[in-house]
Design goal:
This protein has a six-stranded mixed sheet with strand order 5-6-7-3-8-9, with helices on both faces. The protein folds into two domains: 215 residues, 3-Layer(aba) Sandwich (Rossmann fold); 56 residues, 2-Layer Sandwich (Alpha-Beta Plaits). By secondary structure, it is of the alpha/beta class. 30% of the residues lie in helices and 29% in strands.
Length: 293
């Protein structure tokens, strides 16, 4: 697949602070990539460099093969930053038309209106919208230019669960139509819902870059849930286990679930209701950024 966005040995310093410290990535046509990392990891800095909003300290970033600082390289790019400021006095429909006029081949207006459920908002002034409605409009604007690549930085900030899911559906529709998407989010469920590939950044470096399922499966720890066994017995059999209790149910996070089950059987423990599952994306993320599960 064609690389739409590439970075090679990309660094960005703010004074003595290295926001990015040698990042190599490729974002290819048709991908939906989740960009994860704790606050201050360098995610927003990476997106700003990709958009030509900042210059790298060293290294290279290329957008559609060109320099992001060149406006011609950004014609096929859409974005929604963390903080948006819509013109308060303009109506939503006017903003859609204004943005569309800046692109040579904008998306059909009716398609954007339908997919992002903007019909009820078209005649409203942006200043009268709720925070969630403004966020929905801001994300829709990223797709107005019919882009090949969209960068979404915390796209559902401030939205309730139903509004988030509705926005996910709209983003999925644009992705299914061929638009590549890079999304950052503190809602790990959001990444699981949208992304097929995950890049984890921490301390300005790429810690992992792989398929979503691979990132999750590569975390060594597993969750074992069962009843009929005292938590102290599990700890005795596996001193490294992190054990929690919820009524009669005991949950143990362990490095080797098979070894724990074999130890329970060998010890004659009368366990029941046994389930073993792999890590969630949240557990994978915490492990990859060196936090405890």
């Amino acid at each position: 697949m064609t690389a739409l966005l590439t970075a090679r040995e990309l660094t960005k310093h703010y004074g003595d602070v290295a926001a990015l410290a040698g990042v190599d990535i490729d974002i290819r046509a048709g991908e939906c990539v989740g960009l994860l990392g704790p606050n201050g990891a360098g995610k927003t800095t990476l997106l700003s460099l990709a958009q030509g909003l900042r210059r790298p300290t060293s290294g290279q970033v290329r957008l559609f093969g060109g320099d992001p600082l060149d406006p011609a390289s950004r014609v096929a790019l859409g974005s929604t930053p963390q903080a948006t400021a819509l013109p308060e006095s303009l109506k939503v429909g006017e903003v859609l038309d204004f943005i569309a006029a800046h692109f040579p081949d904008p998306a059909p207006r009716e398609r954007i209106v339908e997919e992002f459920d903007l019909g009820p908002l078209l005649r409203k002034q942006c200043g009268s919208l709720s925070g969630g409605q403004q966020r929905r409009v801001a994300v829709a604007l990223a797709f107005v230019g019919n882009p090949q690549l969209v960068l979404l930085d915390e796209p559902t900030t401030g939205l309730d669960v139903d509004a988030r899911r509705s926005l996910w559906d709209a983003v999925r529709a644009r992705h299914a139509d061929g638009c590549a998407v890079v999304v950052t989010s503190h809602h790990l469920e959001e990444i699981e819902q949208l992304a097929q590939r995950v890049i984890v950044i921490d301390d300005g470096r790429v810690r992992a870059d792989d398929a979503l399922a691979t990132i999750v499966s590569n975390v060594a720890r597993r969750r074992v849930t069962l009843t009929g066994v005292a938590p102290e017995r599990i700890v005795a059999l596996d001193p490294s286990a992190a054990v929690t209790v919820d009524g009669a149910t005991v949950e143990a996070v362990v490095a080797d679930a098979d070894a724990l089950v074999r130890a329970l059987v060998a010890a004659g423990e009368p366990f029941a209701d046994l389930t073993v599952r792999g890590a969630t994306l949240e557990e994978a993320f915490l492990a990859l950024t060196k936090e405890t599960v």
